[in-house]
Amino acid sequence: MAHSLSAEKRHRQSLKRRERNRSVRSAARTYISKARGLIGAGTLPEAEAAVREALSVLDRAQKKGVIHPNNAARRKSRLMARYKAALAAAAVAQAAAPPPAPPPAEEPVETGRRRRPSRKAPEKAPARPAKVPAVKKPAVAKGAAAKKPAAAKPPAAKGRATAKKAPAKKKKEDKEK
After folding, report:
1. What are the extents of the domains in the chain?
2. Does the domain at residues 5-96 carry the CATH identifier 1.20.58.110?
3. The whole model's pTM is what?
């Protein structure tokens, strides 16, 4: 037990810091174990996202002073080495697998005898029709300019009072009577 008032205070402070740091340290461990699990399972796209998140959590823990910078660097290095080894193993496995066979091409069916190519001059290609100039379309306004302008509204009254509505127009039937 502490023998002085300052030592007692330091002990109380250390307990508070320990509680605060515990959640950060635990989160870092959780993210690392998730990333390792995904790497081991071979789901590399998901593992990449998990590794990035784990590295970010380790950096934040280091920045807050929860773990030593060398500790964070060591953990990040080991995690990246494991991830890169899994990527290399996946690349080797993919290269070792035989490529899928292309679909069989249809062979031309030969009927009759083969003819010798003609020695005559090749026929000229038909002339292309003349280009017709394109008709320009009128410019169409986009965005806010395309909308019709709204009718001007009077400014809304402040407070509890509401703007009074104009009296409704009477129908033609009412006017005739």
Report:
1. 5-96
2. yes
3. 0.52
